[in-house]
Amino acid sequence: MSTENDPSNEQLAAIAKALAHPARIQIIRLLLSKTSCIGGEITHEVGLAQSTVSEHLRILKAAGVVAGEIEHPRVCYSLNLNSLLPLMSLLQLVADTATTVAGSDGLCCPLTPQSCDQPSRDPE
Amino acid sequence: MSTENDPSNEQLAAIAKALAHPARIQIIRLLLSKTSCIGGEITHEVGLAQSTVSEHLRILKAAGVVAGEIEHPRVCYSLNLNSLLPLMSLLQLVADTATTVAGSDGLCCPLTPQSCDQPSRDPE
DNA sequence: TTTTATTATCGTTATTCGACGATAAACGAA
DNA sequence: TTCGTTTATCGTCGAATAACGATAATAAAA
Q1: Which residues of A touch B94 (CB under 8 A)?
Q2: Degrees (nearest 5) of the Cα angle A38, A41, A46?
Q3: For B68-95, what is each residue's pLDDT tens digit?
Q4: Which positions in strand D are less than 7 Å from the protein's CB atoms?
Q5: What's the number of domains chain A is made of?
């Protein structure tokens, strides 16, 4: 059963942090939509300064979310699914637990009077 | 309903930002593991100052990731799956695209010489 | 009423982030 | 060689974050 390779809290937070900016989400979506190689096309698309976009790409690369292959003058970026798997696992675990324990409100675990409230149960 | 309601980049980044700290990941894991109501037990568990943990809980609540129900003197916290669904959808989309397009390396989309390398062809 | 227990908020400080322009580096082409 | 194109790095500034202790707020219980 316990086949848990359980990434550390720091690891999971680092992945989330890499995704914690609108420009970086946009870049990920761009890489998803494009099936061809895009280099600095990203820069034009996000609408920020070239140095800023380069910094966002650096952050994504440092987190392993994207990989960059140097082409002639440009760089060919791609997504790396493996880097996102730990976060996906955690979210999936939340989803499984929530749908098992909770109802359609999406609330997980306690929060129901039956499981949460035990101290002093007044009749009425 | 359709599953294509495409949350904004800002929305997705906000969810990721809520998860972008080890203490908050730890809190989420705590809420996952416990099936009973835990109030300030979280504070003791994460090992940070009470005010700091309260701030992390505030951030999680503001993002909708957790909900807090006031009990007698304590607060009963629970996870809210619905708030995480947009991020899950994006990650799932990455996973689907990656496993479809890429091989076992987890790299998505381009990065293969066939699709990537079409460099400076001819100007029309 | 006061006490007690728990949580939220305030004020401060050190660190990090995000954005920009300017500049450097890399390398094929001319 | 020099030029041109693309990307990375540097320096700086303002804003945001994380952490803490101290304090306030809340509400049940004495």
Answers
A1: 28, 32, 79, 81, 84
A2: 125
A3: 887 777 788 889 999 999 999 999 999 8
A4: 4-11, 17-23, 26-29
A5: 2
